[in-house]
Amino acid sequence: MTETSPPPPILVAALYQFTTLDDVAAVKAALLPVCEAAEVRGSLLLAHEGVNGTIAGSDNGIAAVLAHLRTLPGCAALEVKYSRTDAMPFGRMKVRLKREIVTMGQPDLDPVEGVGAYVAPEDWNALVDDPDTILIDTRNDYEVALGTFAGAIDPGTRSFRDFPAWFRERRGALLGEGRRPKIAMFCTGGIRCEKATAFVRAEGIDEVFHLKGGILNYLEQVPEADTRWQGECFVFDERVSVTHDLTPTHRAMCKWCQRPVDDDRGCGCGVEA
């Protein structure tokens, strides 16, 4: 009988939910003590449009924080992506108040009502293999540099704020004269695509799709033999990036720009370590 190794002890939960939070200061005042009592570390962002962040800790600690978050208005179905790691990837717990939980700079956008159609990981390959589908990576340039889906367009943005201007400038070239293609977009865990698809739909395009649960969900659910993913997926903690089955790479990070260090290209910020 083959013995199996126990799973890594630290549970990591990447989460978000777009919902209306009227008094974010009161939400923070109640949330931070729950995180501290549960001995959970990480970062949670609160804004009037919802909650977003990544936390890590024991299974019971994570469960306690998620149970509290699910009591918030509109958060009963909180979107959570789990993974495990051997060592705590965060130094402390932070709860911050922000204007947006993911900054796009489009204050009139409604990511709840305007969001595009979700596509499950098991259906994603068929969508992106369709020649009528335009596949767009909504992440930033340093994330795309580590890995992306085969055939995806890289906007080359350094900030998510740059995405609306990029799309408006490239719209004609992307769509072509009289063409009505499907647009499929993806990001790390799904949150940026909630806004990106809502933005593109607000620009008058109807058939807009995004990968439910993001790249992380795809890498966990789709067998490596069937993957359309190429490379690694950048994550916003000390694991730096993950591969299929969410295996951490533990790449080096530049202490100045907080971007992954490539053995050949460095990080690109120009500051010597």
TrEMBL record:
It catalyses: uridine(34) in tRNA + AH2 + O2 = 5-hydroxyuridine(34) in tRNA + A + H2O. Residues 129-227 form the Rhodanese domain. InterPro entries: Rhodanese-like_dom, Rhodanese-like_dom_sf, TrhO, TRHO_N. It holds the Pfam family Rhodanese. PROSITE patterns: RHODANESE_3. Keywords: Oxidoreductase, tRNA processing. The keyword ATP-binding does not apply. Its EC number is 1.14.-.-. HAMAP family: TrhO. PANTHER family: RHODANESE-LIKE DOMAIN-CONTAINING PROTEIN 7-RELATED, THIOSULFATE SULFURTRANSFERASE/RHODANESE-LIKE DOMAIN-CONTAINING PROTEIN 2. Catalyzes oxygen-dependent 5-hydroxyuridine (ho5U) modification at position 34 in tRNAs. Belongs to the TrhO family. This is tRNA uridine(34) hydroxylase.
